[in-house]
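Entry:
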Amino acid sequence: MYKVMLIDDERVIRQGLRKLIDWTSIGYEIVDEAEDGISALEKIQCHLPDLVLLDIRMPGMDGMDLLKKMRELNISTKVIFLTGYAEFEYAKKAIPLGVEAFLTKPINEDELEQYLIETHKKLDQENLITGRLNAQLVLEEKQLYRRLLFGQKLNQTRIKFEKALYTVAEIQFYEDIQVVNAFFDKFQRNNSSITCLLVAGSWVLIFKDMSLSRIKVFLYDLSNKMKKEFIKDFFICVGRQVTSIHTLHISFEDVKLLGQRWFLSDDYSIVYYEEQVESSEVAFFIDSDLLYSYIEVNNTDDIEVFFKALESSIRAQNMDFNKIKGLCSNCLLIVIERIKQNYSVVLDIPQNQTVSEEIYQQKKLSTLILCMKKYIDRMQAIIHNGSRESTMTKILDYIGSHYEKDLKLERLGKIFGYNSSYLGTIFKQETGMSYSKYLDSIRIEEAKKLLLEHNNKVYEIAQMVGYNSVDYFHGKFKKYVHMSPKQFQLEHRQNEKELGE
């Protein structure tokens, strides 16, 4: 429907025009009327009608002056003049100002309807052309915005960007792309002041001259509408506000960085650049050796603590999620391979490639941690098979299998979940000797076997049983065996030779 205003100082004429024509049937609706030029101008500026029926002779501001004022204000509303016969020649002066017709009073119904139909066709044609031009301009503007988002310079363009505040938001989603595109096509039609672009599989919104507080209210409302339309979840991130169209790429870079953090969220969420606290540079390392030790001694409580610490460490990183997946996958595969090498049990676990693929399929940090724990729990159950050995038996078995490592009491306490001082006390109570003395005795016994069974040099055997200093090894060996390693080796080989003869 095109909007019409009736402007005439005679009320009876205005009422007659309303009844004379079935306006709705030919595509018009009367939105208002006025009895003088001054009030008419205010109403025209308010309604911006497509057509006015305008009397030339009115008090205050006549029709001719009103038409001139409209054109000065760039109001392109079409005009049909209503005039008396004697004023016809005078009214011709209005032709250069763009007038559709001059109708003499009393108004002929058929003549008026014919002009209305012709004017309707003109409006249709002009709107079609304007629509195409606007669509072309919108397309061109969006192409320019795309270039600006990536920091590219603009060539000469007919589009002029005003000085304003710009803010970029990005919406990531798992929903079907057609569903999302239909939603944002409708959104763009209803929110023409916000530019919507599909960029690399995500929808980007560009806000112009909108405060952050208004943007927050707007996006909160938008997210509620999206929850009703989308089955799967989504993530909205908002960059900083920039003061120039030529720095739009800075706000876009913000959202790309924030967008990498979606994996930390398990729900619909909106993240703002201004609210983010820069993560500290924390060294990121996954201790697969410690995790393996916890599995070996069946320390379920500390396995849980391990994964909580791992999740916390990941949250402190500004690291790509795929890189994190790679590190987690590598840790898990190392543990699996060590279990296979050190235990004669059949691991009911898929091939390494399948395990790694499952890790990389995870889209959230929470599901990544659960995936790793699933495999750890399975390995733990398999190698222990419901065993409930005493803690001290586990500790002694562990020392017997790992004596060659840097097995300080603190490390052992961490593996088994004990304070090192307390562990030292109960160790002496259970074994009758200090931890260090027990560890030395195990190492020296193993060294004696190696000295007799292998041709390695003494310093090599020292390293094989856990002593990095050969002199330190010499001292310990003499303390327990009362002779040097070399003397021990020679004496026993001589005895074997004599027995052989």
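Confidence is low (pLDDT under 50) at residues 277-281.
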